[in-house]
Structure formats: C-alpha cells, structure tokens
Amino acid sequence: MQYNAVPLQKLIEQFERMPGIGRKTAQRIAFYILGLPKNEAKNISSAIDEACEKIHKCSLCCNLTEDEICPICRNDKRDHSVICVVEDSQSLIAIEKTKEFSGVYHVLHGAISPLDGIGPDQLSIKELIARLGNDDVREIIIATDSDIEGEATAMYLSKLIKPFDINISRIAFGLPVGTDIQYADEVTLSRAIEGRRNM
Amino acid sequence: MQYNAVPLQKLIEQFERMPGIGRKTAQRIAFYILGLPKNEAKNISSAIDEACEKIHKCSLCCNLTEDEICPICRNDKRDHSVICVVEDSQSLIAIEKTKEFSGVYHVLHGAISPLDGIGPDQLSIKELIARLGNDDVREIIIATDSDIEGEATAMYLSKLIKPFDINISRIAFGLPVGTDIQYADEVTLSRAIEGRRNM
C-alpha cells in the first residue's frame, strides 16, 4: 500500500537515489522540507537550479567553476608548469587543504573503468593533452585514487604523456600517518616497503 | 579559504542543514547533483517545488495529503469513532504499517515543548477538539512519543478531552519484543512492570 501522497513519495524517491542516503533518511528529509516555511523550501530548489545553471567546467583545467577560467588557473602566483591530475573536484579540494601544492590542476571527472563503460574518451584527457602542447609544462603529478580504476588511469596517462618529454610522477602510497604497522593491510604495507626512501 | 564556487557552496549549505546529513555527505550530494544530466537535476528541484505546492494538511485529521480530505478520512470502511492521535505523519505511517489499527488519525504536527517555544496553540489541537464536538467519537488513543514532550502532550490532551466523556487511552510502553530483560534500561523496565496485564 502507498502510505504517502504521490508528490511526497516522488520527493522521497529523489532523495533515496542520492549517495549516502537510505530510505529512512530520505523520508526524514522529505518531511523536513515539507515542514519548512515555503520560502525556505524554495531556497533549496533554487540552489539546485542555480548551481546546475551556473557551474560548469573551467575551460583550462576542467575543474567546476562559475567563471570561464577557474580562480586557480587565473592565479599568477601559482606554478603553471606543474599540473596535478585528479579524478574529481573533491580530490582537488582535499589537496588544496594540505596547502602543500602551489601548482595547478587538471580534473579528469572520473577514472577509466571498462566495467562501468568509462573509457579514456569519457574523461577530460584530450583537454589535458592540449595543455601539454600549449603551456610550458615541466611536471605532471598523477593523483588519481589508489583503487584499480585510479591505478589503471595513472598507467594509461603515464604512457600517453611519455612522448612529451615531461617529468611524470605519481603521489606516494604507503602507511597513513599515525598508523601502527601491525594493523596495516598487506597491500598498503608492501606498497610502503616498495616505495621506501633513503634517509 | 573558499574552495568551492559560490553557487556550489550555497547548495552544500542547503543540504548540510537537513536532518541526518553532515558536511561530507552534503558535499557528496552536491557534487552528485552537479554530475547529473540537466533534466535529472531539474527533476529534483521540481519534486521539491511540487511537493511543497501540492501537499497540505487534511482538513479533518491534519495528515499531509494532496487532497482536501486524506484517503484515510475518506475511507468508509475505517472506524471513524476511534481516533489515534500522533505527533507527525511518520508516526501515522508506522502505525499503518502494523495493519493493526482500523480507526482514523489526528496528526498534531509536533509535541508540547516549552523550551522550543512550542505550546498547545502551535499544534493542531483545536482541530482535534472540533472533531470531538462534531463526530460520534468513542475512543481517543494517544500515540505521542514516549519522550518528555510526548508525555507532556499526552497529559495535556487527556485533561482537555476528559469533559467530553470519551474513552481516552495511551499506547503501552514496555519491553520491545525480542528484548533480554537483563539489557533493558531501568525506566523502560519499570514502565513494563507498572503496565503489567493479567494473563
């Protein structure tokens, strides 16, 4: 039996499809929205419409921005000869928060994943290659995730960029800071040993 | 520093204010929405607008509905002489799912909570009293929550309804089915002893 009115049920279903939201939370959110004053509920739908309308990809690095070129690419103080390649804007923000990186970025918007039907053509790899031809790029740091798709993408990119005679690096994988070695998983530990550095 | 474009940040903030959603989930949802095809993102904002526009309170029981009178109040097969009073539509759905109750409901849309500035006037208590005068009501089952606000509301209602010479009952509180007595908290256990029934 259908316990909710149709427009309410539709709203619950929209939230249920979102990442990290189950049926119960979707219900709670829908009833929360219905309990809001009309103008505040309208603010939510307007925020969705406005974001979808104004936000698009930076024409250089493909990061999400409301400008033609994003603030990072526009920034003269950053080192435009070092490009850090990330899978998504969230990874970019995570790296920005370290305040350790002063170069620029390139956002792929995904990783190669044949099982999900995502090949190199679905990612913004063409745009990256175009930048290598135009700009005076010294180094490419590949900061894709450390899962299978991220590794496959890193391998693919490194082969693709090799002819350009640019230094290619991959961020380090090893023990997270503060970990007990006895509790580390075997794959991480073997990567940590493999990637050891002289002291 | 502001890492996200303004419209994106606004969208994240809208989701962050929702119940059960933290900063990280709000970010994930916002990026999920931006990654959707335009029409699917539009579906979400339309679902919000449509629900807020079409859903209102049933003119009898105050349950949320898209009709003037909700399907439960319209249903002739239900026993209109027994009214179950609940705090919100979610409680109503929970009771409906038991399939044990064939009467009708009255939704208060909250509970008395002086600390939050919610008094009897903010709840749909007037509408309940009006029904007692009009309809041929035999029993009121008070099914407000078992927290302080729900108990206070139940006490308030029982005093208010007493002059009407209607049978007033409160749903039973005791051990949840399947519980080990040794693990039950003291308050629940004392309510279970207090509410014991002859076998």
Topology:
The structure is a homodimer of 199-residue chains.
Chain A: H1 6-16, H2 23-35, H3 38-54, E1 56-57, E2 64-65, H4 71-74, E3 79-86, H5 89-98, E4 103-107, H6 125-134, E5 139-143, H7 148-161, E6 167-170, H8 186-194
Parallel strand pairs in A: 3-4, 3-5, 5-6
Antiparallel strand pairs in A: 1-2
Short account of what is shown:
By secondary structure, chain A is of the alpha/beta class.
Protein described:
Two copies of one chain form a homodimer. Chain A has 199 residues and is of the alpha/beta class. Chain A has two domains: 6-54, Orthogonal Bundle (Helicase, Ruva Protein, domain 3), CATH 1.10.8.420; 60-173, 3-Layer(aba) Sandwich (Dna Topoisomerase Vi A Subunit, Chain: A, domain 2), CATH 3.40.1360.10. The first copy, chain A, has eight helices and six strands. Chain A has a four-stranded parallel β-sheet. Chain A has a two-stranded antiparallel ribbon with strand order 1-2. In chain A, strand 1 and strand 2 form a beta hairpin. In chain A, helix 1 (6-16) crosses helix 2. The model of chain A has no long low-confidence stretch (mean pLDDT 91). At the A-B interface, helix 1, helix 2, helix 3, strand 2 and helix 5 of A face helix 1, helix 2, helix 3, strand 2 and helix 5 of B.
